[in-house]
Amino acid sequence: MYLLVDCDNCFVSCERVFQPDLKGRPVVVLSNNDGCVVARSNEAKALGIKMGVPLYQIQGLIAAKDVQLRSSNYTLYADLSNRIMSILRQEAPVVEVYSIDEAFLDLRSVEGIDYEAFGHHLVKKIGQWVGMPVSIGIAPTRTLAKMAAWFAKHYPGYANVCCLSDNGKREKALKLFDVAEVWGVGWRRKDKLYEMGIHTAWDLTQRPAAWVQRRLSVTGLRTWRELRGEDCITFQQEPRRQTICTSRSFAEPVTTLKEMEMYISNYAARCASKLRKERSVCSMVTVFANTSPFREDLPQYSPSLTLTLQTPASSTPLIVQTALRALRLFYREGYQFKRAGVIVSGTSANDAIQTNLFDDIPAEQRARYDKLSSVMDCINSRMGADTLKMGVQQLHKDERTGKDTAWRDGIRHDYSSQNYTTDLNDILKVN
Q1: pLDDT tens track, the chain, 431 positions
Q2: Of 177, 111, 191, 105, nearest to 147 (Cα)?
Q3: Are strands 2-7 and 134-139 parallel, antiparallel or unpaired?
Q4: 4: how many CB neighbours lie within 10 A of its CB?
Q5: Which of 47, 69, 112, 322 would be a feasible disulfide site paired with 285, CB 3.0-4.6 Å?
Q6: Are 103 and 85 in contact (CB under 8 A)?
Q7: Of 321, 285, 290, nearest to 305 (Cα)?
Q8: Which residue from 13, 54, 72 is spatially nearest to 416, judged by alpha carbons?
Q9: Using CA atoms, how far apart are residues 414 and 30, in angstroms rounded to an integer?
């Protein structure tokens, strides 16, 4: 049997953990630059607020219904997600993390277990230890477990745990489940399936295998087999990425080299950190910047430059140095940049590095850079992101205002909550 743990309204629930006054009130979480709605509480959904709607289109509803706004706080969300995954790893022999708010537990090797009681145990433990509400689906295949989790989330009678342990329960669930909600089918195919008389998951399972493969391809056939109770989806570890990009649109235009250096160095540092997490190195670093194409009254300039490393690397100092060198080569004064980013590419495993006989950087220096990066990762994982960083990533004087400017991703966070669990300055204060 497989057990799927799904965090209910994940981003909103994370906000409510440390702000209990938000419970029972309509809450929406906004995208970068506070542009669009990316998460909604059940109360917000009941008001008709759609996923992805721009903030400016619902300003009247926000004021009339006292909708609470929160900027995306991915640092908080990721930390609470990691805490949940840690609990699951303590409870199950195999945990397959599917996304920030979902994980499969493979219980096939566990004997003599009451699956439904185990599910309720997890709901209670995660609620007590982390404060997050979760819904759990249990079934003999991953696709059926996803379907069971949907019923657990939408039908209060299940008390957050739906177990499809026998054929009778599975058949009843399949007949009630919209085919557009099936994992692997999706809403893009719903109209086509509706036209062919397939409205529920049960309708799909009643078609012959050859018919399904001819119209929905091999992937659709795999889904069909899973719905019929045949375990045939193999969880695969995410492959090494060939390119990693960190980029942002700025809340306000950037017009000075020093400010751009701060942003580019931070983007480069994040790319380097992601490389090390994947045990990868890169051989090329690309830096790009763009002015706003919508400001036709302003001069336009959208440069990019790729530099090749003499020896593939993942250390923060080397990646940042290379990115800054590229930036300084193409930067021009007199432009208002609205977006910038760093891309690292040509990745390979960090234990298969082809060295360069004519490398300008001594091997001892590279080893020091790697050791420094490792120390930074260790401290930042324990004390919070950006606890330790390079000087160029730090505060500097804004040449326009003369005031100190802090690194804040260059994006708007007007409704941001605190990093309660990862920053000592934001730790919850109790009277």
Answers
A1: 999 999 999 999 999 999 999 999 999 999 877 889 999 999 999 999 999 999 999 999 999 999 999 999 988 999 999 999 999 999 999 999 888 999 999 998 888 899 999 999 999 999 999 999 999 999 999 999 999 999 999 999 999 999 998 899 999 999 999 999 998 887 777 888 899 999 999 999 999 999 999 888 888 899 999 999 999 887 654 556 789 999 888 878 999 999 999 999 999 999 999 999 888 999 999 999 999 988 888 999 999 999 999 889 999 999 999 999 999 999 999 999 999 999 999 888 888 777 776 778 888 888 898 898 899 888 887 777 777 888 887 755 555 555 445 555 556 678 888 888 887 788 888 87
A2: 177
A3: antiparallel
A4: 29
A5: 322
A6: yes
A7: 285
A8: 72
A9: 10
Q: Which amino acid is at 190?
A: K
Q: What is the pTM of this model?
A: 0.73
Secondary structure (DSSP) of 122-155: HHHHHHHHT---EEEEEESSHHHHHHHHHHHHH-
Q: Determine the 3-state secondary structure of 180 from DSSP.
A: helix
Rounded CA separation 216/182 (Å) = 13
Please tell me the distance from the alpha carbon of residue 129 to that of residue 132, in angstroms, as a whole number.
Answer: 8
